[in-house]
Design a protein that fits this description.
Layout lengths: L2 H8 L8 E5 L2 E13 L3 E13 L21 E12 L5 E7 L4 E5 L3 E5 L3 E7 L10 E7 L2 E7 L4 E3 L3 E3 L4 E5 L4 E4 L1 H7 L7 E5 L5 E4 L10
Antiparallel strand pairs: 1-2, 2-4, 2-7, 3-4, 5-10, 6-9, 6-13, 7-10, 8-9, 11-16, 12-15, 13-16, 14-15
């Protein structure tokens, strides 16, 4: 294609929604106010937008749950002003979810890209999950109303409980809470060091669980 065709094919699309996808891996936030986004996810912006860093995605529904960020926390930034803010995260696929008032979802901290200021949020730590550090498993609880953008490596799969999942491949869940399960057969077959020995166990028949075709491990401290 010539230069004009290249520009036309790849310029921002007209939308009208606060959150819209320019493509499957790039989020366009039509900002008029404030939005919380993953630190380091900004790739471009126009207009009059300022940024303020935060140590982690804390606060919201029931006040302080943690006094300081942990290694599992999610560094975030608050973008305020008017203009278009373009966000991406390591070429991961972006999924936009619209939460009604009272609807909620729990998301792995690594997989939260952005959410509107109307969304309440807090860090929640599940201390009973086997195979994790003494601090437990940390995720971000988000409650509507408002738009939430999460990321996945590849196309997600949404499952209905009862189901067991690999923690490193688990992105989010809603309407259900995980417990832990240790699979002795897997440990005997593939060794004690394998993460697949430890699983998240979602019981009952309510809610859903989001997994991705990729095992995302926390960085070593």
């Amino acid at each position: 294609m010539n230069v004009d065709e290249f520009v036309s094919a790849n310029e921002p699309k007209d939308g009208g929604e606060t959150f819209q996808l320019e493509n499957g891996k790039l989020l366009d936030v039509d900002l008029d106010g404030s939005v919380t986004a993953k630190a380091g996810s900004m790739i471009a912006y126009d207009g009059d937008i300022s940024f303020k860093g935060k140590s982690s995605a804390e606060g919201g529904i029931t006040g302080f749950l943690k006094e300081k960020a942990t290694s599992e926390g999610t560094p975030v930034m608050e973008a305020t002003g008017t203009g278009h803010l373009y966000l991406a995260d390591r070429e991961k696929k972006i999924q936009i979810l619209e939460l009604d008032a009272g609807q909620s979802i729990s998301v792995n901290g690594n997989d939260v890209l952005a959410f509107e200021s109307s969304v309440n949020y807090e860090i929640r730590t599940i201390k009973s999950i086997a195979g994790f550090s003494a601090g437990g498993m940390t995720n971000v609880f988000l409650e509507g109303p408002g738009s939430v953008a999460i990321t996945t490596h590849g196309e997600p799969l949404v499952l209905t409980p009862p189901v067991r999942t690999d923690p490193s491949a688990t992105v989010a869940w809603s309407g259900t809470t995980p417990g832990s399960h240790v699979d002795g057969a897997l440990s005997n077959m593939i060794g004690q060091s394998s993460d697949e020995t430890y699983q998240l166990e979602f019981t009952g028949s309510e809610g859903f669980v989001v997994v991705q075709p990729y095992e995302e491990h926390a960085p070593q401290q």
